[in-house]
Design a protein that fits this description.
The chain is α+β, with helices and mostly antiparallel strands and 144 residues long. Helices cover 27% and strands 31% of the residues.
Amino acid sequence: SPQTVDLRENVESALAAFGEMSEVTVDVDGSVVADPGRLRQIVRNLVGNARRYGGPQVEVSSRLAGDEVLLTVADSGSGIPQDLQEWVFQPFASAHRIEGVPTSVGLGLTVSRNLATMMGGTLGYSHDDGWSRFSLTLPAASST
C-alpha cells in the first residue's frame, strides 16, 4: 500500500523494536513513497544484520538523489567477501558464521530486496572506506 511516509518517523519506529540503540547513529530526513510496514521490515532487517554481523558502529542515514531517496544502513565491520556480495541476496544464503551467534534462515535480504523492488526501489550492497553499506533507494515523495 504505497503512501507518503516520513522517513525519520518510520526509521525510529523500526528501531524502537530493538530497545536500547546507543550504538546506532541516525541521520535521516525526508519523505518517500512506500508501504510503511514493509519499509519498517526492511530497516529492521538491515539494522539487525548490521548489529549481529557487522562492526561496533552502525549508522542509518539518508539523502535525496534526484527523484529518489537513498537510505543507507552502514556498519564498521569487515564486510561481505567480494564473491558473496550478490549471493547474500539469494534465498537461504548466509555469508557469516560467528561463534556463539545463531545463524539466520537466510531470507531477510531476499525478502528485503523483493519488497524494495515492489515499492519501485532497489537494495544493494557495497564495502568501501572500512564500512559495509546496504543502500535502499525509494521514490521521493513529491513536495507539492
